[in-house]
Amino acid sequence: MDVSTLAQQLCDVSRRIYQRDWSPATSSNYSVRLDQQRCLITTSGRDKGQLQVDQLMQVDLHNQALTAGKPSAETALHTQLYRDIDGIGAVLHTHSQYAVMLSRMVGADELHIEGWELQKALAGQHTHEATIHIPIFANSQDIDLLAQQVSQRLDSQHHAPCYLIRGHGVYTWGQDLDECFRHLEALEHLFRYEFEWRRMARGDQS
Question: How many domains does the chain have?
């Protein structure tokens, strides 16, 4: 698929995400892989409800700009995933309410989800009886260090195609943009199920 087609697809997905209120106030960043050395990524500070093709830029997988634009501050979290995991074609990062709130509700460094039929929307999941392991990382403005931490944990353990950053949001990925969006949509619902389930279990009726 050519670069212009991928760019337009990324803008279309961006608007779908924004309409669901998962990327408020110019937050979030999205990318698609172009080849083994490059990806296309959103530039910094863009309104995701009105994202245009000329608000994307190319970077290599070591975060060097290849076209004009200011890359997102979190570009290293995208390129780390492309370098580390074969077959990834897209990465989506959002700041949705339930991802952010659940990441603060869970004190452990990993969220476990089980028992929900929608788990099967995630690649590699075939039954609601399985437990999905989602790493949670402490938020940091040191993105290079955070990328190293993500790389070390995802390399040593088997996890779902996603992770949370506490008080920040979710990163998810897929073999292409369609699969990545499916993961994101399923995760957003699963996060809401878990948040509400845990809140009711605590007896919080407010």
Answer: 1
pTM attached to this predicted model:
0.93
Q: Express each pLDDT in 162-177 by its tens digit.
A: 999 999 999 999 999 9
| Contact status, residue 174 vs residue 183, Cβ threshold 8 Å | yes
Q: Is 168 annotated as a binding residue?
A: no
Do residues 150 and 74 lie in contact, with contact meaning Cβ atoms separated by under 8 Å?
no
CATH number of the domain enclosing 126 = 3.40.225.10
**Is 93 labelled as part of a ligand binding site?**
yes
The domain of 161 spans 3-204
Pairing state between β 90-94 and 169-174: antiparallel
Q: Apex CA 89: angle with CA 86 and CA 94, to 5°?
A: 115
Which H or E element spans position 136?
A: strand 131-137
